[in-house]
Amino acid sequence: MSENNPSFQPTRWTLVQKVKGDKTEASRALNELCSLYWRPLYAYARSFGRSMEDSEDAVQGFMAKGIEKALFAAASKEKGKMRTFLLTSFKRYLRDEHAKQITIKRGSGKVEVTDIAAEEERWGDSRAIDPTISFDKRWALIVVEAAGKQLKQKYTDEGKTKIYEALLPSLSGELENSYQTIADNLDISLSAVKVGVHRMRKRYGEMLRAEIIETITENEDPDDELRYLIAILSD
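Above: the chain's sequence. Below: its structure in token form.
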């Protein structure tokens, strides 16, 4: 992913490095990181039986403090997974806030967390799920969605939107229409459809892997992390 290519967002570790730089740039990068990862944190808080409002307050307070204290400045690709770093930091924040019995006023964070009700409806009540598993499930979803957006952008840039839309269901299972029907609808050969399905799956796998590499250390196996996240979503 190229930072100079408008088709792509800056990488996760690129944003982390920006947090350590110019104050204005650091604030913008930190807000983007917080916006990316609020859902796993919210899911973790909800899994403890907190109300939607209390969970939102907890995430807002954590992000507000993170912006104030330059939370991600302490993150490093050499130190471990970003997923582990963020969850550990959030656990520490919740523990400290509980010990000090501080109530964060709702909406005090600088990063907006909106449409919580829609998120809750989408996922259902997560209080029966182990908090860490709940966090990891949302993290896995972020990885999947990010790779999906890149895949769509790739086909759009190539002027192949119709092919993308026709073959997209192949990523989650069998195509709704037969290969021959798709070929007829797109006015391409049957072999072109088969090659297209293979290419889309390969591209998507590469993009998933690239997303994962952006959140782990250089010594960790991205395939292990990918298998774990897939298993978490399948559970």
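The longest helix spans residues 131-157.
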